[in-house]
Amino acid sequence: MHKSALSILSNVVHGYVGNRAVVFSLQSYGWNVDAIHTTEFLNHPGYGQFKGQKTGSDTVADLFRGLRDILDLKKEYSLILVGYCPSAEVMSTIYREITPMLKTGIEKEKPVLVVDPVLGDNGRLYVPQEIVEAHVSFLKLGLVDMTTPNQFELELLTGIQMSSWTTVREAFVTFYEKYHVPNVVLLSVVLDGQMFGVGFSKESESIFGIPIPTIDCRFSGCGDVFTALITHAFCKNDYKLTPIILGQVLAKLGRILSISYDEEKAKIGESPVVIQDVRLMQLRNIFDETESLKYDVIYI
User: Fold this and answer.
1) What is the SS3 assignment for 233-274?
2) Which of these, 155, 157, 178, 153, lies nearest to 168 by C-alpha position?
């Protein structure tokens, strides 16, 4: 497998969110990663202070022009990953620039496109409404191979509130009918007091849930780490999403979060409410673990 990726996400100087988390994770698996940063911030907002700036659409367009000058973009990348963008102008510019790379005319030669539609969480948007519309317009083109929305984003994009397995199935089926994305992964949804990761595969015509142990703490950047891990696993598995793939990734992420939590608790002497940055560097050996990982599967 040709392992060259273009990762288009936010970036921070300190911490592991956005491209700082994704690039490291993919490189740990042997990917050659080029990165376009949609922000250049000091840190993520959880630190309570903010420095840096958003990347403008002109800069993003200029970087793509530069890449075209030195590379054949229709052949260079086997993977394109798109995540957080600060404005509709930047989002539209990215989609406009990558579309020719995805329309090669030969299906096997096009890069795999994974989109993490970062729109909001906990019942509210934290991007302009125009970004939602940019995602909707692009998703309908049928060029996305896998997407990784959170619960709020999946509900927003389908108009279906997920409160039972029946409504979860309805949301996934509706999402496919509207956007024709053949693989969808939901990191977490809580049903009857239990958290689950959920996957949808059009190829196998299946929807499956993986129970996830709950840790009473907020972890900054875990969604970005998850997207990187599930993207690599998906590509390694011949671009197929299965319960085994999702279960292994969730188990790895669970171990990373659990150890990060225990170390932070030992450091501060009490149970942490939030962990600003997971121990990604220290726990990178977990990326390759498979045999010891245990998980259950529920078919929906």
Assistant:
1) HHHHCCCCCCHHHHHHHHHHHHHHHHHHHHHHHHHHCCCCCE
2) 155
Helix (H, G, I), strand (E, B) or coil at 50: coil
Q: Which of 257, 237, 240, 253 is nearest to 287 (CA)?
A: 253
DSSP single-letter state for residue 12:
B
> Phi/psi at 208 (nearest 5 deg)?
-140, 145
| Element counts in the chain: helices (H) and strands (E) | 9, 15
Amino acid identity at 229? L
Q: In the structure encoding, which two tokens stand for residue 56, read together?
A: 């403008």
Q: Of 23, 53, 55, 57, nearest to 41 (Cα)? A: 53
**For position 107, what pLDDT does the model report?**
58
Q: Which two tokens stand for residue 122?
A: 């906990």
**Which pLDDT score is estimated for 281?**
87
Do 254 and 213 touch, CB atoms closer than 8 A?
yes
Q: Helical H runs in 48-145?
A: 57-70, 73-76, 88-102, 129-139
| β-bridge mates for residue 198, sequence order | 186, 209
Rounded Cα distance between 277 and 218, Å, is 10
Structure pTM? 0.94
Distance CA(16)–CA(250), nearest Å, equals 18
Residue found by looking up tokens 């029946």 in the block = 166
Q: What is the mean pLDDT of residues 57-73?
A: 97
Distance CA 147, CA 128 (A): 20
Q: Alpha helix (H) ranges present in 51-87?
A: 57-70, 73-76
Question: CA–CA separation, 12 vs 67, rounded Å?
Answer: 22
Helix, strand or coil, per DSSP, at residue 34: strand
The two beta strands, 298-299 and 206-212, are antiparallel
Average pLDDT over residues 42-55: 85
